[in-house]
Amino acid sequence: MLAAVLLTSAAATPTRAAPVAGAPKDKGAVLAAWTQTSTASYARWLLARENRGAWKTYDFDWATDGCTGGPDQPFGYDFRLACYRHDFGYRNYGEAGTFRRNKKRLDLAFRGDLGRVCGRRPLCLVLANTYYTAAVRFGHA
């Protein structure tokens, strides 16, 4: 049903770009693919973020407030993209009314993204754990 609405509205609104070839027609499926804990999911989301125009049909909320109250680059560790993807998941699942059901996975994906920034650097990992813990305790859509 949602796919039919999206396709109809895309056809009626010529300013919207068509979805990327081969992409699922269901907005929920695309959202789920971009918010998993894997590196591949992160890479798909990042590619889409860099080419948002190709995904206008889905009407995603790309807004972000960065790392919500914490520095985006604490001690030079760049957490921005991890925070942006976390916001993307929170905002879009919130809009879909399925945030509570997906929050744990979104927070785990956030932890994974932060961990990929840190590698094996101990101070960075401590900071990443602090950001993750704050998201688990205080994060809401």
Main features:
141 residues; mainly alpha; disordered N terminus
Explain the overall architecture.
By secondary structure, this protein is mainly alpha-helical. The protein has helices at residues 2-12, 27-34, 39-50, 80-96, 99-118, 122-138. The radius of gyration is 16 Å and the shape is globular.
Helix share of residues?
A: 55-70%
Name the shape in a single word: globular
Strand content: under 5%
Residue stretches low in confidence (pLDDT < 50, at least 5 long) are 1-18
Q: Which sequence of SSEs, written as H and E, runs from N to C?
A: HHHHHH
Tell me about the largest β-sheet: none
Gist of the model:
The protein has 141 residues and is an all-alpha fold. The protein has six helices and no strands.
Write the layout of secondary structure elements.
Blueprint: H1 2-12, H2 27-34, H3 39-50, H4 80-96, H5 99-118, H6 122-138
